[in-house]
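> forwarded from #structure-qc
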């Protein structure tokens, strides 16, 4: 009987404040969708780092005859055959080096033409202007500085570059977008909490006569508060369900279909469905508990008879 009464009171409260309940559902859904999106964005950045950092190389660029006039590090002239042999031998001796690939000027020219064939400068570049290099695959990309310290400044070496720096700007951009999403989420969360508190206050005020009678006949505070808390929790749970649908739809239409980024950007290792599904329980739990807690705190002030 008590359970039936509580459920009936929940239905009454939702019908009386239908507009505000709808606003709560929408604001909770948006804030939780942004929360889940921020978590997935962070996971995407981490996945991309693991994928790309495992593939990038350390590049040791060697001096050519044109560098002698432009680079102080190549003041002694182009790299000699003996210097190249010594650099390669020293690289292969290092425990952290997994593989060493030599790229000649002709190979560098070919790769440049493949990548920048549509640019104006590609038509005037000649093979002798390109630099020989050693592409070094490390067992641990984080130990780039060991190679840089050992070979930067050596005769015949023009520069040592970590290709991770090329990707870092992309990762910084994605992290910046993630931070913006978190701030917007926080704003939407505050709006949702304000709506929840106002909805509970209006509901408690409209039923102050009923709650007063219940208090007079000996009903406990918890029993009186339960319908209001469950109303807020129900609205929040609906918001969590809507947010979950938005996250699933986002993954489906952005990556697999619709924009089909997985087909258009095949070099990007996108997060899978398992990552999205792992976030949904957290979204639902927060959607259920956050409004219930906000309602409980609000009732301590507004449900005094």
């Amino acid at each position: 009987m008590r359970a039936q009464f509580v459920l009936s009171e929940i239905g009454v409260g939702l019908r009386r404040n239908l507009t505000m309940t709808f606003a709560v559902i929408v604001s909770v859904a948006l804030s939780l969708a942004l929360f889940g999106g921020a978590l997935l964005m962070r996971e995407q950045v981490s996945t991309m780092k693991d994928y790309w950092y495992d593939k990038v190389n350390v590049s040791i660029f060697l001096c050519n005859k044109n560098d002698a006039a432009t680079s102080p590090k190549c003041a002694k002239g182009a790299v000699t055959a003996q210097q190249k042999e010594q650099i390669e031998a020293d690289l292969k001796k290092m425990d952290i080096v997994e593989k060493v690939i030599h790229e000649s000027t002709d190979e560098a020219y070919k790769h440049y033409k493949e990548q920048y064939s549509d640019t104006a400068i590609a038509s005037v570049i000649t093979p002798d202007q390109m630099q020989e290099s050693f592409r070094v695959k490390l067992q641990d990309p984080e130990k780039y500085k060991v190679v840089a310290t050992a070979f930067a400044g050596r005769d015949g070496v023009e520069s040592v570059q970590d290709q991770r720096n090329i990707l870092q700007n992309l990762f910084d951009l994605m992290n910046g977008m993630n931070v913006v999403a978190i701030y917007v989420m926080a704003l939407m969360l505050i709006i949702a909490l304000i709506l929840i508190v106002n909805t509970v206050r209006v509901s408690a005020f409209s039923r102050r006569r009923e709650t007063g009678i219940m208090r007079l006949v000996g009903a406990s505070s918890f029993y009186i508060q339960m319908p209001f808390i469950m109303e807020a929790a129900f609205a929040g749970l609906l918001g969590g369900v809507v947010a979950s649908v938005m996250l699933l739809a986002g993954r489906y239409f952005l990556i697999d279909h619709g924009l089909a980024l997985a087909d258009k950007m095949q070099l990007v290792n996108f997060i899978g469905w398992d990552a999205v599904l792992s976030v949904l329980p957290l979204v639902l739990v927060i959607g259920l508990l956050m409004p219930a807690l906000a309602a409980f705190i609000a009732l301590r002030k507004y449900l005094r008879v």
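QC bot note: The chain has a mean pLDDT of 80. The first helix runs from residue 2 to 16.
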